């Protein structure tokens, strides 16, 4: 059995807790009014916006563990959102059907990446760079510069399964994270993904269906980006083609901060989701510090490097 | 003779494996000195230290009385140590000139002096009697010319010590002759040669003295005129070779593996062979003879151009290793680290991946797997600190046993082994031989590729010899001599090339 300190996710949780503690202390109000950062409504806000990244990060973590990379999620989020919003608003489809078609679009984008990587044998970086361009371009073609106002058509007080609408996205993120964590650790498929990421040649020589597993990894990543896209449209109340620009890099950074190694074979789904929370807290808290707004991106960049360097130092010391 | 190059108490360990232990010997300036030993004897490690690729844990390398500080390959080059490696290192995309001057380009004010480099290359090629153009792209050259290009590269910069690691493995006899003519010329010019080879006739032809390493230790240095090849072999092996008839000819049995006119261009053509149930067949041939490619094609890694493979009389045409494994074929690959092991996974996962993925279950069942892995560790005597460690904590021999054990867990009908004892110590080697014999006794058909002739002779019932992609003959192991087999594997006559 693993000893407690060997569980990589715990150090990500520790970083998250320290980060929250720091902002709670730094933003502590001088007067008796309520805390601007440490309150339930703000926590829900962080969770809601993080879930857009977090759901896609589940897929990104799996892709990275398999030794690949997926640059498409940002664009796929936008395309899914646009398709869904177009059907829902312009064509007046029911919400469920619009969402279903949106998810199919995400899955299709993932399958396209899979085909390019597994059948055409393109390097994942190039294949998904291409799919990223195609998906973003398709989103622009569909919208022709318009944006779809989803919020006006969403019924107020919508409570799927008795859950307040606000809570849906965070719950979807947590459920997907836990489900895929189990798949990665307790299912043959998950172990195959780890083995391919650790040593693809050996996986082939070991009789693992490398092509099939890799294809399914990119398909899942596309589908999960689709889920993110639906969530984003519902959370922001609108669909437009330049949504989620640059998210792919934030998502990859989250997975890496959560313990994934870009050389493959190492990482965790829950860790990646925790990584998106670390960035979610930063994005939420920094604008509340006067003058810090402009430091947002810089601090995010520094945090990625610091956490990964710390991780590598710990890893070499353990060996 | 003055000692020019000296190794003084050189030691190097990789994890649990002691690759070199207190190795000391001298090479006289201007002599041709052979370094011989079995696989895993430590030759390559010693050469890598001399090339500045590895640093010794302790000990020193001395040249003309001065300690050589060889921290990087560049240091070695600057001291006049040129290397010719077994695997031909070259930049296939660069020209001959580009290869020779790679990393040491002639420049003036930062600009490349192309014409000057081409001129010098032409002079060098002329001197070596190499009929190739300085502007030819390396990729377009024959294997022999690429090998000689490495020699030229070493000579382009006043090299005083030329180290050659098995330079003839991919060469024909005529090409090897050409290489020797060049080497003899260099020797007369005063270049010190350190020559590593398995092929004793070459060693005796070229070298003045022969140093033998065994299991990482220095054994002895012999003068060419004072020793017979058989004595060198005894020094390399360090024991009397096990009785040949240790493996009795297998009783005639049903044919488990039949390969018929299997062809995959350009690697091998028209290969026909059979392996009976319970039989061990050795497949011998030099590197480049197509043996590994043959095994990999039977295992479904490549699609053959023509021919067929039957297992137990039923045709199998695997399109992937997975299909081959499902048809009862297992391959223990040559490069266990690159092709056989997962260093990001535990020993348990490594041992059970093939068996579990063949079985096609959905869930990982940790408790059951722990029991199964523990049984394999016990059965095949794998020395490990536990089931949860990564395989890099194991010695080379035990890593190899892991790769074997993971396939034996699938009860293969046909066991293909590619250099199963490459780089393992003598103890593990005998255990691996024992494992193969037990598999044969269980009724598996075993096809063993090995460059280690004594091993093939000791292990196999029958030996099939390949050269240049074709089967050149077959001998019963009990009656064959090393010379018989080597003759089939190397001679240009007979079957015709």
Strand content of chain B: 25-35%
Q: How does the major sheet of chain B shape up? A: 6 strands, mixed
Q: Taking all residues together, what is the mean pLDDT of chain B?
A: 86
What integer is the average pLDDT of chain A? 91
Instruction: Give me the secondary-structure category of chain B.
Output: alpha/beta
Structure description:
The complex is a heterodimer of chains A (319) and B (497). Chain A has 319 residues and is mainly alpha-helical. Chain A has 12 helices and 2 strands; from the N terminus they run H-H-H-H-H-E-H-H-H-H-E-H-H-H. Helices cover 71% and strands 1% of the residues of chain A. Chain B has 497 residues and is α/β, with parallel strands linked by helices. Chain B has 2 domains: 235 residues, P-loop containing nucleotide triphosphate hydrolases (Rossmann fold); 236 residues, Rossmann fold (3-Layer(aba) Sandwich). Chain B contains 17 helices and 22 strands. A 6-stranded mixed beta sheet of chain B has the order 6-9-10-3-11-12, sandwiched between helices. Chain B has a 6-stranded mixed beta sheet with strand order 18-19-20-15-21-22, with helices on both faces. In chain B, helix 12 crosses helix 13, helix 12 packs parallel to helix 14 and helix 14 runs parallel beside helix 15. The C terminus of chain B is likely disordered. Chains A and B meet through helix 7 and helix 8 of A and helix 10, helix 11 and helix 12 of B.
């Amino acid at each position: 059995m693993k000893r407690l300190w060997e569980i990589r996710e715990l150090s990500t949780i520790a970083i998250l807790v320290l980060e929250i503690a720091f902002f709670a202390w730094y933003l502590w109000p001088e007067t008796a009014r309520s805390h601007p950062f440490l309150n339930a409504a703000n926590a829900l806000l962080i969770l809601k916006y993080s879930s857009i990244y977090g759901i896609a990060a589940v897929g990104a973590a799996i892709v990275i563990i398999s030794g690949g990379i997926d640059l498409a999620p940002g664009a796929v989020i936008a395309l899914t959102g646009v398709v869904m919003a177009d059907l829902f608003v312009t064509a007046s489809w029911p919400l469920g059907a619009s969402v279903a078609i949106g998810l199919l679009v995400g899955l299709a984008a993932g399958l396209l990446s899979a085909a390019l990587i597994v059948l055409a044998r393109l390097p994942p970086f190039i294949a998904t760079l291409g799919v990223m361009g195609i998906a973003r371009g398709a989103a622009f073609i569909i919208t022709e510069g318009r944006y779809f106002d989803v919020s006006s058509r969403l019924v107020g007080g919508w409570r799927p399964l008795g859950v307040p609408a606000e809570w849906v996205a965070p719950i979807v993120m947590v459920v997907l994270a836990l489900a895929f964590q189990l798949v990665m650790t307790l299912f043959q498929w998950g172990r195959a993904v780890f083995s391919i990421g650790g040593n693809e040649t050996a996986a082939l020589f070991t009789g693992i269906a490398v092509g099939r597993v890799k294809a399914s990894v990119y398909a899942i990543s596309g589908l999960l980006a689709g889920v993110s896209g639906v969530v984003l449209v519902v959370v922001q109340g609108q669909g437009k083609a330049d949504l989620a620009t640059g998210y792919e890099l934030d998502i990859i950074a989250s997975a890496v901060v959560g313990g994934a190694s870009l050389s493959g074979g190492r990482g965790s789904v829950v860790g990646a989701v925790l990584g998106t929370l670390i960035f979610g807290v930063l994005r939420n808290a920094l604008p509340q510090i006067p003058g810090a707004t402009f430091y947002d991106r810089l601090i995010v960049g520094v945090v990625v490097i610091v956490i990964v360097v710390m991780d590598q130092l710990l890893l070499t010391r353990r060996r | 003779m003055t000692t020019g190059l000296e190794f003084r108490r050189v030691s190097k360990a990789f994890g649990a494996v002691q690759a070199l232990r207190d190795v000391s010997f001298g090479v006289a300036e201007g002599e041709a000195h052979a370094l011989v030993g079995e696989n895993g004897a430590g030759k390559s490690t010693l050469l890598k230290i001399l090339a500045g690729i590895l640093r010794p844990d302790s000990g020193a390398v001395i040249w003309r009385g001065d300690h050589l500080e060889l921290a990087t390959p560049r240091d070695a080059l600057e001291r006049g140590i040129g290397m010719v490696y077994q695997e031909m290192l070259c930049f296939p995309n660069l020209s001959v000139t580009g290869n020779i001057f790679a990393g040491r380009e002639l420049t003036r004010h930062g600009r490349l002096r192309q014409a000057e480099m081409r001129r010098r290359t032409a002079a060098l090629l002329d001197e070596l009697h190499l009929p190739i153009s300085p502007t030819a792209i390396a990729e377009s050259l024959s294997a022999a010319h690429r090998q000689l290009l490495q020699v030229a590269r070493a000579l382009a910069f006043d090299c005083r010590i030329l180290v050659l690691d098995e330079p003839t493995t991919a060469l024909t006899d005529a090409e090897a002759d050409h290489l020797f003519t060049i080497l003899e010329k260099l020797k007369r010019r005063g270049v010190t040669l350190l020559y590593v080879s398995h092929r004793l006739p070459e060693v005796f032809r070229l070298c003045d003295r022969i140093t033998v390493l065994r299991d990482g230790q220095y054994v002895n240095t012999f003068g060419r005129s004072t020793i017979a090849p058989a004595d060198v072999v005894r020094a390399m092996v360090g024991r009397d070779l096990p009785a040949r008839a240790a493996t009795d000819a297998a009783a005639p049995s049903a044919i488990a593996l039949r390969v018929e006119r299997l062809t995959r261009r350009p690697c091998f053509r028209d290969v026909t062979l059979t392996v009976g149930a319970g039989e061990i067949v050795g497949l011998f041939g030099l590197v480049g003879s197509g043996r590994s490619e043959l095994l990999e094609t039977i295992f479904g890694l490549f699609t053959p151009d023509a021919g067929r493979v039957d297992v137990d009389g039923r045709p199998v045409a695997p399109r992937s290793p997975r299909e081959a494994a499902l048809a009862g074929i297992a391959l223990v690959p040559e490069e266990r680290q690159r092709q056989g092991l997962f260093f990001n996974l535990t020993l348990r996962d490594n041992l059970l991946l093939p068996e579990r993925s063949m079985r096609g279950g959905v869930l990982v069942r940790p408790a059951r797997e722990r029991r199964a892995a523990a049984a394999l560790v016990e059965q095949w005597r794998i020395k490990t600190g536990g089931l949860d460690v990564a395989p890099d904590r194991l010695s080379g021999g035990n890593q190899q046993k892991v790769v074997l054990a993971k396939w034996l867990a699938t009860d293969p009908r046909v066991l293909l082994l590619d250099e199963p004892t490459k780089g393992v110590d003598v103890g593990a080697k005998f255990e691996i031989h024992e494992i193969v014999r037990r598999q044969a006794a269980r009724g598996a058909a075993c096809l063993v590729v090995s460059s280690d002739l004594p091993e093939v002779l000791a292990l196999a019932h029958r030996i099939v010899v390949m050269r240049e992609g074709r089967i050149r003959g077959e001998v019963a192991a009990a009656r064959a001599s090393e010379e018989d087999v080597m003759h089939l594997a190397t001679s240009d006559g007979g079957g015709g090339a």
